[in-house]
């Protein structure tokens, strides 16, 4: 099942849908998947391409975090060379998972 929106023929969001199981949308509407569900009713719905890219953001974020961690741990990348906002985000995510902070 997928989260997303029902949109009208002009591409405007009619309603949010949680757990779309497929099937036929109401007449004059279509379903657009968007797992982030960050838009409001009445907004222009994301294109299928934008929704597809958005659905991979979490995976890409974790991959980048794992890459940074591996490079810092092996000494290939100096922790101090990273922007402070990157260090804050990496350590905040590590803390949520109960992992020790990098330094």
Sum this structure up briefly:
The protein is α+β, with helices and mostly antiparallel strands and 103 residues long.
Explained architecture:
The protein has 103 residues and is of the alpha+beta class. The chain has two domains: 2-55, no CATH class; 57-96, no CATH class. The chain is built from three helices and three strands, in the order E-E-E-H-H-H. It has helices at 48-55, 57-73, 84-96, and strands at residues 2-7, 13-20, 30-33. It starts with a strand and ends in a 7-residue tail after the last helix. The relative contact order is 0.12. The mean pLDDT is 88.
Unreliable stretches = none
Number of domains: 2
Rg, please?
A: 19 Å
Order of helices and strands: EEEHHH
Structural class: alpha+beta
Show the helix and strand layout.
Elements: E1 2-7, E2 13-20, E3 30-33, H1 48-55, H2 57-73, H3 84-96
Antiparallel strand pairs: 1-2, 1-3
Question: Top keywords for this entry?
Answer:
103 residues, alpha+beta, 2 domains, 3-stranded antiparallel β-sheet, 3 helices, 3 strands, 37% helix, elongated
